[in-house]
Amino acid sequence: MYFRFSVFCVLLVLATNVLAQDFFQEDPVKLKEVRVTSQRLHDYGVGATVSRPDSTLVKLHRSGSLSSLLSNTSGVSLKTYGPGGLASLSIRGGSSSHTAVLWNGLNIQSPMNGGVNLSVMPVHFFDNVEVQHGGSGTLFGSGAVSGVIHLSGDDLLRKENSLEASLSKGSFGLGSAGASIKTGSSRFASRLSIFGQKADNDFPYTNTSRIGHPEETQTNAGVTQYGVLQENQWRISDKSLLTTGFWYQDYDKDLQTLMTSRRPDETNQRDENFMASVNYKYYGQKSTLNVKQGLIRNKVLYSDPDMADPQADNNSLSWINEAEYKYRLGKYHSVNVGVNYTYELARSDGYMGDIIRNRMAAFASGRYGLSSGRGAVVLSFREEMSDADIQPVVFSLGVEHPLWNSIQLKGNISKNYRIPNLNDLYWKEDGYAKGNPDLIAESGWSGDVGVDFLFNRGIFATRLSAAYFASRTEDIIVWLPQDGSKWMPQNKKIGETDGIEVGVELTGTTEKSRISARVFYTYVNSMLFSDDEYNDRQMVYTPENNVNALVGYSRGAFYATLSGRFTDERYYDHSNTLDAYSIWDTSLGYKFRFSGVRADCSFKINNITNTDYQVVAWYAMPLRNYLFSIDLTI
To answer: What distances in angstroms separate CA 101 from CA 55, 109, 467, one per listed residue?
Structure first.
């Protein structure tokens, strides 16, 4: 099946390439560099820690989902309900609803539950993945409490025309195929990407919930996924640029049978997502105008034959409109102001009817350059109104300043917030639960201070980064049983977090060889204070200690990697914990050329130590497994 799909992808993009070459052929035009990644992050996210997955890791996870990549990324803790299942992330002890996910600058968090399922997002679709640590509500609004994930594509106008195709085959019925074509000129460029994946996930595991810990085979864990991403860049004039993106995703997942279940589960979840973005930029002599629109539609169909109503249908629509204006004051100073209007519509079997919410926000930032542009101070403000509910003004202050050529100090402090999601407010009363329209927004403070050190000598380069962070979030929304044991959300808890992040990168390069090593350590002390049994305990599924490591070696066309992660024990309720675990993966690869085609073949072994572990309680994870991949580029 996936061989046929791969052939279809290649034929489709080849046909598109033949048609486009004649249409877009024209004389080259010299252009200024176009920055596709977030201008607001790079210009006004001063003082924040921003990490990017190592290029080697991105390559190894090219045929997987964003959840598999981020699980190996610095400072990120992933909560995964089995392979291919729902995956959400935590940064610095925050929950998934405290981490905003932005695609092309648009927040794609669900207005219904405030989350994003990272399992449905193929790494194949993103050229740039950036993880911003710490609160950033002034820059990116509600939900950016503990961190932000930024997803975007490359500058297509400067990217060479090419055709890429990939095919992967792995253990437990895993097969994936993808293809993409980039074509055009320096005036107009377009890229089409296609991705598909299927896995049975019928792996053996040790059932620790049963006496004697017998070995069993996982059931009802299969997944089928398809996606299409189409991107365009059009240089309308020497001073204006239009960028569009269209993304469709279909994700069909059987929900994994739990270890504690005494019979195979038959539940299923079908996610159908459509996203579109339009971004217009105008470059003046001292100013930049950026206008963007986005449409995000999510449909989730949950099926359980054992329920009285075997299907639950949930639909949401977000229409995002934003305009911002940046003006440069001299060479190193600038101001940035903007407005945002977001329309949200939700329809669910759990609501009394259609729910509509209108959100408006205004934001402003000022940047003052220091030390000939090598340092900066940024002050930002944001005000948001949700229907008639006006949120308090939030602000942030960030500083970066070099001590010497190789050492830079940085720090920031910010006030952040998260408005209740629609499920919190409007879930209709039934036999089990009801929403609470009287909820108020969560609010809090966060800050960090750190240092970056860069040292080069001969063939060796060293980079050291360290940061201390702290935060306090009040009125955390939690669902608790009320009179009659009916669950209802309330503003109950206070969360306090502090910790450290330390990263070390070492690289040695000769004429023919390169060796690199990277280690990132995170310590998180994240406590809840409430009037129930969770009081004064580490937040659930938040490990105190987390380590990511990567060692890579290449010589000529050959390369090898060893990557690992250690996750400390975690509470999964008020008194029980999951054991700590270490997972190691290794891969070997070889690159070669033939007839103008670049080929890259790799073989990867996941969980080489055959470790038995759980990320979420009673969801089994696979033991040692294998993946073979081949990537072709024309």
So the answer is: 20, 6, 23
Domain count, the chain: 1
Residue 422: exposed, middle, or buried by beta-carbon count in 10 A (0-12, 13-18, 19+)?
Answer: buried
Q: Which domain holds residue 580?
A: 2-633
**What was the pLDDT predicted at 492?**
79
- Determine which helix (DSSP H) or strand (DSSP E) holds 9, and give its type and residue range: helix 2-24
Q: How far is CA 506 from the centre of its chain?
A: 26
Give the residue from 405, 429, 295, 336 showing the smallest Cα distance to 139.
Answer: 336
DSSP string, 166-219: EEEEESTT-EEEEEEEEEE-SSEEEEEEEEEEEE----EEE-TTSTT--EEE--
Distances (CA, A) of 314 to 223, 303, 436: 20, 12, 19
The three-state secondary structure class of 58 is helix
Q: Taking the mean position of all CA atoms in its chain, how far away is CA 135?
A: 15
Measured CA to CA, the distance from residue 321 to residue 358 in angstroms comes to 12
269-283, 374-388, 533-547: least confident range: 533-547
Question: What is the C-alpha separation between 586 and 583, in angstroms, rounded?
Answer: 10
In angstroms, the Cα distances linking 395 to 139, 206, 268, 415, 451 are 9, 50, 43, 6, 23
Q: Select the more confidently predicted residue: 490 or 177.
A: 177
Task: Name the β-bridge partners of 503.
Answer: 465, 520
What is the reported pTM? 0.89
CATH number at residue 326: 2.40.170.20
Quick one: how many helices (H) and strands (E) in the chain?
A: 6, 35
The bridge status of strand 99-103 relative to strand 147-152 is parallel
